[in-house]
Specification:
Distance between the termini: 25 Å
Structural class: alpha/beta
Strand content: 15-25%
Largest sheet: 7 strands, parallel
Helix content: 40-55%
Number of strands: 13
Strand order of the largest sheet: 3-2-1-4-5-6-7
Order of helices and strands: EHEHEHEHEHEHEHEHEHEHEHEHEHHH
Shape: globular
Radius of gyration: 22 Å
Number of helices: 15
Length: 394
């Protein structure tokens, strides 16, 4: 089977899709990649002998270069003879499905990492993105979602030939990398990172953006810095709001309590030295940063947006607070600071729940979907369907 994986930018491929591509190649398939290579693709893809097709996708759906991207995809499909196209990320998915809609014999799978329309989204998102997704569904053979809200939204779409709609447990998390460590290892790493053993460390991993809403967390820390003298907030990531958030920290006099760590490759270690992980996001698909924290055995505090609420049940494995409620966020942090027992209980619950989101489990779910396709009856993946019942089908 000749398969084309498509994403808007190479960052998505590097961050999430390599294990999936590797799995398909190991099963005897030929896999190509189409994306805008804004970041150098992982060298593992070269060892896997993946053919890379640079395409001028732009993240804004209204960018004029996306017209050229449409032409490039059509040319790739005509010249390369791909039998299956698996699309990711909204812009590339829309353009690619439009380009492939009339090509005979090609099946199109679409994995939605998070629709741009959701409860609480601006009306513009519903008018534009909901309409575009509904239209593109008619060119889609299989649609895969990652959270309950998207799954139920997708059920309203009419797929080509009444194709199935699934929900899977994300892209898969490497539980060999993200795992709990002993208290001794935590203290050893804190010493290595020059972090005080007495600090109460809160970590938020994510781009510094309006969507991720770090300003709410900064305000919550401001409410607590007199009560919790040893509170430290680590903000991991870069983004267009970095200067605005640094200015807010200065205005609130939190320079000794908030650290901007920038882009990091040692997230596993940062999670290990932390006491609590937080997401104050306004919008999510299925947040990897919270899954990484869960796998490390940390308690979590999240806002009740889509994706966050799929992972966290209030009072069971963390606290869920309002998207704009800094007071509730501060209160949740204070409760966990004062209760080691509750932190440990939430951590234990997270270690149990995260097993469903492991890379091994998600790959099994993807296998089930591929096995269910007509095109795989002859070139069937050499794996028995385990009938776990995890994947839902419409």
């Amino acid at each position: 089977m000749k398969i084309l994986y498509v994403a808007t930018i190479s960052n998505t491929v590097n961050a999430f899709l390599i294990p999936h591509i590797k799995f398909l190649i190991e099963q005897g398939n030929e896999v190509g990649i189409a994306c805008n290579p804004v970041q150098e693709l992982n060298k593992e893809l070269l060892h896997l002998e993946c053919k890379v097709h640079p395409v001028s996708f732009q993240r804004s759906p209204f960018h004029k270069e996306n017209i050229q991207a449409y032409r490039e995809i059509k040319k790739i499909m005509k010249s390369e003879g791909y039998q299956l196209v698996h699309v990711h990320t909204p812009v590339a998915s829309l353009i690619t499905r439009a380009a492939c809609r009339n090509i005979q014999g090609v099946k199109i799978l679409y994995t939605a990492h998070g629709f741009h329309f959701f409860k609480g989204a601006p009306i513009f998102n519903w008018l534009i993105f909901y309409s575009l997704e509904r239209l593109a569904a008619k060119w889609t053979d299989i649609l895969i979602t990652m959270n309950e809200e998207d799954y139920h939204s997708a059920k309203k779409f009419n797929l080509r030939r009444k194709g199935p709609i699934y929900i899977v447990h994300g892209v898969g998390l490497n539980l060999h990398r993200f795992k709990p460590h002993s208290f001794e290892e935590k203290m050893r790493l804190r010493k290595e990172y020059e972090v005080s053993s007495q600090d109460f460390i809160i970590t938020y991993v994510g781009e510094l953006s309006y969507r991720k809403h770090q300003d709410l967390l900064i305000k919550a820390v401001h409410q607590l810095n007199e009560k919790i003298k040893n509170i430290k907030l680590f903000l991991v990531g870069d983004g267009d709001q970095v200067n605005a958030y640094k200015k807010l920290v200065q205005e609130l006099g939190l320079e000794n309590h908030v650290e901007f760590l920038g882009f990091r490759r040692d997230i596993d270690n940062i999670m290990t030295i932390s006491d609590l992980a937080i997401s104050t996001s306004r919008q999510e698909g299925l947040p990897v940063n919270i899954m990484e924290a869960m796998a490390t055995g940390l308690p979590v505090v999240v806002t009740g947006c889509r994706g966050n609420s799929d992972l966290v049940t209030n009072g069971v494995n963390g606290f869920v607070v309002g998207v704009e409620d800094a007071d509730a966020c501060a209160n949740a942090i204070e409760i966990l600071y004062n209760s080691k027992e509750l932190r440990e209980e939430f951590g234990k619950q997270n270690l149990e729940q995260i097993k469903r989101y492991s890379l091994e489990n998600v790959i099994k779910e993807i296998k089930e979907i591929y096995l269910d396709m007509d095109d795989f009856t002859k070139n069937r993946i050499n794996m028995v369907n385990n009938n776990t019942g995890i994947v839902k089908r419409l």
